[in-house]
Design goal:
The protein is mainly α. It has one domain. It has five helices and two strands; from the N terminus they run αααββαα. It has a two-stranded antiparallel ribbon with strand order 1-2. A hairpin with a 6-residue loop joins strand 1 and strand 2.
Length: 145
C-alpha cells in the first residue's frame, strides 16, 4: 500500500457524467437521498428523542436536504451550459467560466459552492455521533462525566 501511495502519478477521484444516463441516475440518487433524509427528519421530530445529540442530527438532516436540493439544481444548470461556457485548461479542478456572466452561469456558479452546506452538515453529524457515543459510554459504565 505504501508503494502504491508513493509511486502513483494521478488519482482521478472525481467522476464526471458525460452521458445522459449518468446524469439521470445521479439525479435520481439525489431525489432518493432527499426523501430518505426527509423521512429521517420527520421520524426524529415526531418521536420523543430528547437531548442535544438528536438536535444535532436534525440539523444535519436539514443541511443535507438543502445540499441535495442545491446539487440537484446545479446539475441541471451544468447540463444547460454550452460547452464553450466552461474552460478546463489544467483539468477538471481548474474549470473557469467565460465572461460575460449570464443567469445560467450565475446559477451554476452559486450551486458549485454546495460544499458550504455539506461541510457544516457533516460537522453536525460528527457532533451528534460524538454525543451519542458519550451518552452510551455513561449508560454502560453507569457514571456521569
Amino acid at each position: 500500500m505504501l508503494l502504491i501511495a508513493l509511486f502513483s502519478s494521478e488519482a482521478m477521484a472525481l467522476q464526471t457524467h458525460d452521458g445522459l444516463e449518468g446524469v439521470v441516475v445521479h439525479q435520481l440518487a439525489h431525489v432518493q437521498y432527499l426523501g430518505a433524509l426527509g423521512y429521517l427528519l420527520w421520524d426524529l421530530r415526531r418521536s420523543t428523542f430528547a437531548g442535544i445529540g438528536w438536535l444535532y442530527l436534525q440539523r444535519f438532516c436539514w443541511l443535507m436536504m438543502l445540499w441535495n436540493s442545491l446539487a440537484f439544481i446545479g446539475h441541471f444548470a451544468q447540463v444547460a451550459l454550452p460547452d464553450e461556457a466552461l474552460v478546463r485548461e489544467n483539468g477538471y479542478l481548474s474549470t473557469l467560466l467565460h465572461l460575460p456572466i449570464t443567469f445560467g452561469k450565475l446559477i451554476y456558479y452559486i450551486t458549485a459552492l454546495d460544499h458550504l452546506l455539506c461541510t457544516p452538515a457533516l460537522f453536525f453529524l460528527y457532533l451528534a455521533m460524538r454525543r451519542f457515543y458519550y451518552s452510551l459510554d455513561v449508560e454502560i459504565r453507569g457514571d456521569a462525566k
